[in-house]
Every structure is written in C-alpha cells, then in structure tokens.
Amino acid sequence: EFMQASWDIEEVQAKGIQHLASFVKDKSAFPFLLKCTEVITLAMKTHTDSLELQVEGCTLLLEILSQALEQGVMMALDQSVASCLLHTVRKHSENEEFLSMLCTLLMMVSASEVTVENLRKVGIIPDLLSILRRFLHNDKICLSCCAVLWSLAVSENNADQAVLESAVPVTSAVLQKHLQNGGVAESACSALWALALQGCLTDSDYEPTAALLLDALRMNPERAALVKNGCLALASLVRLSETAALAILLDSKGSGMELIKDEYHLHFDEPGVAEALCLLMNEMVQYDEVMLDMRSQKMEKLLSEIKLQFPFS
What we know:
Layout: H1 2-5, H2 10-21, H3 30-34, H4 37-46, H5 51-70, H6 79-91, H7 96-109, H8 113-121, H9 125-134, H10 139-154, H11 161-165, H12 167-177, H13 182-197, H14 203-219, H15 224-240, H16 242-249, H17 256-266, H18 271-284, H19 288-296, H20 299-309
Helix pairs in contact: 2-5, 4-5, 4-6, 5-7, 6-8, 7-10, 9-10, 9-12, 10-13, 12-13, 13-15, 14-15, 14-16, 15-16, 15-18
GO molecular function: ATP binding; protein serine/threonine kinase activity
EC number: 2.7.11.1
Catalytic activity: L-seryl-[protein] + ATP = O-phospho-L-seryl-[protein] + ADP + H(+); L-threonyl-[protein] + ATP = O-phospho-L-threonyl-[protein] + ADP + H(+)
C-alpha cells in the first residue's frame, strides 16, 4: 500500500523494494511476497531511468521466482507485467550485466503457458533476437534467450511464423559459437527443434543445420537432454527433407549413423534418448536410398538392442 500510494516517488519505490527484499530469507513470508510481483514490476516500469531500482527489482523477482520453482509453484505474469518487462529490456538494451539478469528472469517465467502467451502478445521475439545478436559472446544471455525462444516457438497458438523464421540464423549462430558449452548448446538445440517443428527452416537451412546439430552431439555426448533434443531436431529436419537425411549419412566429420550408435550405447538406460533415436531412424527410413545405407551399417542390430532394452515401452 505504501508503494502504491506513491508511484511517482522513486525513493519510496526503492525503499519499498529493499524492505520487501529483507523478507526473502523468511520462508513464512513467501506466500505474501508472491503477491508483490506486480507491485515490483510496476515500480520498475514507472522508474525505468533508474538502473539501480531496475537491478534491485529484478534481483528480488529472481529470488521470489527461484523459491516459487523450488516449491513447484507456477508463476504466471499477466500482459501488463510482460509489457513492463519488455519496456525495461528496451530501455536498458545496452547494459549486458543487467540484461543477463533480466533474461534469466524471462527464462524462469517462460515455464508458464500463460506467461509465454503474454510475452508473445507484447512482441518480445524481435527484442530477444536483437539481444542475442549483440551479446552472442555471453553464454548466460544465450542460454536464457534460447530457452525463452523454445517456449515461444512450441506454444500451440503461434502467429509469429515470419518472426520465428528470422530466429533460425541467430539460433544457429549461438550453437556454432557455444558448441563446447553444454548448457548453451542444449538450449540452442531445443530452440532449433521447436523452430524446425514450426516449419521455420528453408531448403538452404537443412544441410548446414543438420551438420551443426551433429557437431553439438559430438561435442557433448554425455548430456542426455542435449542428445535427446538434438535427435528430435534432426528428426524434424529429416521429416521435411531428404537433404537433411543425406547430410547425416555423409557428414564430413564421420558417419552420423556411427554417432547415433555411440550415443545410444552411452545412454542405453535413458528411455527419452532411445525414443528420440528411434524417431530419427523412423524418419530416415522413409527415403529408399537412406534406408539401404542404414541396412549396410547394420542399424537393424541397434534397433533390436533397443527393443530388448525397452520391451514394455
């Protein structure tokens, strides 16, 4: 009430946020803090010029959201709050450290379908792509933005086809730049999978994207989630074009089929990985030439192994 009574006074908002932050460590205060998220974002929107207030507000929101996720509470941001955050993103688009925090915040709230829909409505995708282009070197920003892109691209009522198509080269650039960073590569693979599912790639994208995804699998073989999402992305590409299937077979760095075998043997107890590999192979055998090659590489033996390992799946 104290904050709401004096929206226009920056010092009141700053003191209010600092006081709310003092309750963060008190677990019993959590249900009340949850109700304060709108007040905090509104304070941020009203005083966008004050970087100090933005940082303190964002830090507090991150604390509240972290506790919410720990307790399995799904935080949904309404459209006015989503609009506030976008306004803040635009106002401080050059401040790398602050944007890193803000993008982490967006990633955390994008677990909610309601929030994703509201972020889509306020038109956040071009801003995310702009941030990625500007801060391609920043692994934290890249991880967060690709995760938000994934959430936006997989949402069912997607009216952003043209905007999402422009996300393909940027997401590929992120994966290329951070191939050796497992977390970022995993996030970028997920985003590419969602973009492929939405049909955002063109004929000229299939071969280089397939090669890039294979590189990600080679560089991060131990990450089960990356292997799963990478294979799902490859399956989506193969469904669209034989070019992608041939790119997997004829990859200049070694046979994609051998890589698939190696990945399965590394994660033979992970049903999600096995399922993604089966889906990929199922898409590949729709092309006669590819199927003949798979036979010559004894892929039937691998399929039999998977069938024995997961007889009830």
